[in-house]
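Quick one: structure for this chain?
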Amino acid sequence: MKKVGLFFGTFNPIHIGHLVIANHMAEFTGLDEVWFVVTPKSPFKTKQTLLDNNHRYQMVFEAIKDYPKLNVSNIEFDMPQPNYTIDTLVKLEEKHGAGFRFSLIMGGDNLLSFHKWKNYEVILENYGIYIYPRVSGKPLESDLLSHKNIHLTEAPIMEISSTFIRKQHHKGKNIRPMLPDAVWKYLDEMNFYR
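Got it. Here's what it folds into:
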């Protein structure tokens, strides 16, 4: 049984903070692999800064190709929008069968609003949830912390955001150290976020 952690996001763009968290989960928890699940562009939002799905998928692919325990999934690209995590979990299980055990990876801030997710009780009962710390300085307080499927991790705290990277790149600042080399090259060649 392969234990796979699912790391959801737009990854617009993927940066070294994402890689550090994913690699930490794959190396220092009970997970065998971590899959980046690239969230599609919502047809209801006209946000110009969100790159096309395939470009964001390609950047993740480029970023992780030297990491055998990391993978990328575009499973949500063909699913109806808006998409819910529970539906993605069901679809992944249908596609990959019984040889996989899926868990979620999320920041501590997401746990605080987890009770608002569609079918959150079903997710909590049937899937592991690996929580990484966020920069807040406050201890994480949630009734869910004692649940058997919640796993707090000591992943490094990364204070880097894709929004910051996009804004500073647009201003002409050097954001290259925050990106994996392959992502920087792709972004630069395609002239994104300028």
